[in-house]
Structures are given as C-alpha cells and as structure tokens.
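$ run holo --ligand "FE2/S2 (inorganic) cluster" --emit tokens
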Amino acid sequence: MPDGKSLTNDRVAKRISRRTFIKGVITSGIAVSSTSYLFRATLSGQGTALLGERLITLYVNGQQRRVDAAKQETLAWTLRYKLGLTGTKLGCDRAECGSCTVLIDDVPYYSCSVLTHTVRARKVLTIEGLASPNGKLHPVQQGVVDEQGFQCAYCMPGFITAAVGYLKTNPNPTRTELAHGVSGNLCRCQDYDKILTSLMRGAEYMRRASHA
Ligand code: FES
Ligand code: FES
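-- output --
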C-alpha cells in the first residue's frame, strides 16, 4: 500500500507528464501549422512556377486561344471545360468510342487520348469549326441534315469530324470504304445504316463543292 508521500509524488509526476503532454500537443500543433504553412508556401511557389508552364496557346478552329492546361490534361477536357467547345463529346474517355474525335492537322484523333500540351503548334478543328464563318454548313454536316442520319446524335460530332478527315484522303469512297474510314466511331443507338447514308451524301456534297 503506497504511503501519502509516494501518492503526492505520483500526482506530481502525472501532472508533469500531463503538462508535458499538453505542451507537446501545442508544440506539435504549432509545428504542424508551421509545416502546413511552409508546405502551402512551397506549393504556392510551385503553383506560380507551374502556371507559367501551364499557360499555353492553342490554335483551335482558326483562332489562337490562350489556356491554362495542366501537363496531364487531355485535349477533350481542355476543349470542353476550358474553351467551352462542348460539341466535342466525351463517351468512354479511353480511346474506344470516337465521340471525342477532332481533327489535328486534318487527321482524326481521339481527343480524350491526346495531351493538350502536345498540340501547341498544331491546327485543331472541332465540330464547331466546320461550318463557314457565314454559317454555311460543311457539306458533310449538310448531308447529315438532309438524310437525318442520327437518333440521339450524341455520337454525331465524332462521326462527322472522322468522316471529314477520312474524306480528305479518299474523296470518292465506296460505302464499304467509308464504313472502314469511320470504323473507329461507335453509335450506341446502332444507327449505322442511316449514318453511312448521310455521310455518303456528305461525301457527294463535298465533291460537288470542290468542283464548283
Ligand atoms: S471519349 Fe474518346 S474515344 Fe471515347
Ligand atoms: S445516334 Fe445515338 S449514339 Fe449515335
């Protein structure tokens, strides 16, 4: 059984250890605060440096556009959420469906799988840039309007840009060739027959326009 003196010593020891504990918490709290402050300061320092690297100029639909794009940002993301060009659709976001197709230097690409920073010196064309400045539809767009080839039309911008890109390499395709040309694009409504009919009509309009 402990005597009164050792009980007092025990209490003093507990008080000291409690005081030490509280002091430790406060100290570590300050330490944490300082660390997070320093961390934030370091991050914000980096942020300023990064911003310099992230601000880039893109050439989209015939216009120079300044944009703040992270290094890992995809072109589809930049076009839709930074430049407001929402005609470019996101479906799978992993290079499977083609709904994000845009032309880069006249070649169709899945913009969900292209990093924005890699297209700085290149010409990007989205569905919004296909019509003439006076509002006249591109021949392929007109073909789609005339044949009413899509149901929900979510896949339409991707199909049209893919077709425009393909028709630059083969302006007078057979139906089968054109089907192969846009085979990287999927339609969830399964409207392929009418889509092909409208794209073939668009190809015909393109040939007529080039001979006009
Ligand atoms: S969203 Fe890019 S291929 Fe599907
Ligand atoms: S028309 Fe609906 S996804 Fe193609």
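-- notes --
DSSP finds six helices and five strands in the chain.
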